[in-house]
Design brief:
This protein is mainly beta. It has a single domain, classed as Lipoprotein localisation LolA/LolB/LppX (outer membrane lipoprotein receptor (LolB), chain A), CATH 2.50.20. It is built from two helices and 14 strands; from the N terminus they run αβαβββββββββββββ. Strands 1-8-9-10-11-12-13-14-2-3-4-5-6-7 form a 14-stranded mixed sheet, covered by helices on one side. The longest helix is centred in the first third of the chain and has 12 residues.
Amino acid sequence: MGLASKNFSPLVLLFSFIFSFQLPVALADQSREILENARHKLESKSDQAHIVLQIIKSSGDTNILEMNIQTLITKGGFRAIVRMTSPAGDKGTSLLTIVHGANTKQWLYLPASNQIRRIAVANKSAGVLGSELAPEDLNPAAITGAKAKLINKNAKSAVVQITPRKGTSIYSQAIIYFSLPTYLPQKTEYYIGKDLEKTVQFNDYRVYAGHIYRARLIKIWNVVKKRGTNVQLSHIVINGKLTRADFTPDALKNVW
């Protein structure tokens, strides 16, 4: 199975960040207000969505991957299942991730052999399925030990600088642009040293479950490598009826 050899597991962590905007450890000045308001707009207990990844190569060629994902926030962690739906050769391949504190456990289901097996946790900083996505790209505020600083604010926008603790990220800083008064992140710029490495744009926000926002189109562009990834979300359900029973190794065989 081709998918089993790829960087599949970072996808779970990555999309858990879409569904749960986490805050840095150290908040200073008015950045606390900005980031906490953003969290209130984005935070949920459970999510499910259909996701299409369009991987854009430097040659201009594209590759399309499709999957369903379900996530459940738990006390001290989260649970998530990703089920591949396309391409046909990977359809049905599923991954369960259970995170509690610093501990992560994962199980992979391969439909060709009808087997569920425990697997080693992959590198969380790796790109996802050959794309430009890395887990911290969609929520720079979740970088371990990061510090936040407000660098600009006016009536329509705010800009917050996120600086990770040395050795915890490949990035030297991330700059997040928020719209006001919505407090929704619109763009993030990632830097390595003083050089811009990557941009992430959040587009087409919609409201679900009365007050929770989701960007239905996310565009990632690697400025250096001149390649990108577009993430399209559809069939979004927020705070549905998901329970822990939906996130067990045996549940990997279920079809959603």
